[in-house]
Amino acid sequence: MNTYQNHPLAGAVDLDSAFNKLWSFYKKYFLGLYVISVAGSLLSSMFISGLDLATLQTTTDPVEMLEIMKGFAGPYALALLVALVLSVLLHAWVLERPAGEAGFISALLKKSLVALVPYMVAMIIFGVMAVMLVSIGIVLLVLPGLFAAIYMATVGVFVMPVMLTETRNPLEALTRSFKLAHKNLWTNIGWVIVVILILIVAALVLGAIVMLPFTGSFLKSIANPDEAAAMLEMARNPVYIGLSALTGGLVTPVMPILAFLLYFRNRGEEVAVEVTTDDGNTVKVEDLYPPMPPVE
After folding, report:
1. How many Cβ atoms sit within 10 Å of the Cβ of residue 188?
2. pLDDT at 296
3. What is the tens place of the pLDDT at every residue in 257-276?
4. Which residues lie closer than 8 Å to 120 by C-beta, 6 or more apart?
5. How far is CA 17 from CA 76, 191, 250, 269, in A?
6. 218-243, pLDDT tens digit by residue?
7. In whole angstroms, what is the distance from residue 66 CA to residue 88 CA?
8. Is 241 within 8 Å of 49 (Cβ atoms)?
9. Residue 4 backbone phi and psi in degrees, to 5
């Protein structure tokens, strides 16, 4: 028996049923996912919008350029931290929101905070592994490098679901993620590729919409490379930042939803996971979710 059969994202058997579940979940829980995504995007932008990237164009001295880039390290590190927190929150929301229990937000925040540091450690280790594997692939040929990137992206999808449901040990979570990814490797890779391609198209369309109020600056920078600073200034414009956050929030939740679709599908017939509640009682995760209606 699938131990997560009552979660709305459990039970996808093919790409068609997976997309139906993804779309249904996205529509039903859109508001919470969207608010988290937009808030995270705005917070990240707050840290990096004050950076004057145009200063890099005003110098050709490598030492001076290095000093300027050092000044960018702190804000970008904070923006990366926000992105990691956003990822944890979105995954936790996807997992816990269908239970709909009173006070679930405080429990969600607690679970997210507990998982944050192990997730950061796991991502550092995973990032090093990914860079090494992709680099080797690129050295051999371009296509192996591309496959390595897609392969590691597929494995990475499983890390957060594993950490939220099974173990917060970074090494165990990574090992488990590789194991789950290899259960239906080519199918998993195929699903990830399809979703990424859809997200790329959606991002291009939404990006074009965001650019409409700034078409003049964009065309000016293309016609005259000396005006490239206008594009950098545009990226610091509050209107541009706001529009980017509002449109980006539409696509950001998709990958966490896909992550649990793949996790539940590949977890398959395994031992039920048990969690301990705040009052010390042990319950099965599937008991937290309402029964799924029959599929017609």
Report:
1. 21
2. 44
3. 999 999 999 987 454 444 44
4. 84
5. 39, 12, 21, 19
6. 556 555 655 555 566 666 778 888 88
7. 32
8. yes
9. -120, 30
Average pLDDT for 80-99 = 88
**Low-confidence winner among 7-11, 60-64, 80-84 (lowest mean pLDDT):** 60-64
Domain ranges for the chain: 15-270
Q: How far is CA 122 from CA 74, 125, 143, 148, 260, in A?
A: 21, 5, 27, 18, 18
If you ran DSSP here, which 8-state letter would residue 142 be given? Answer: H
* Residue 100 φ/ψ, nearest 5 degrees: 65, 25
Half-sphere exposure of 32 (CA within 13 A, CB side): 19
> Which is it for the CA torsion 188, 108, 249, 235, positive or negative?
negative
CA atoms within 13 A of residue 289's CA, in its CB half-sphere: 19
Alpha helices per DSSP H over 166-287: 170-181, 185-211, 215-223, 228-235, 238-251, 254-267
Tokens of 147: 């496959």
Cβ partners under 8 Å of residue 180, min gap 6: 158, 162, 262, 263, 266, 267
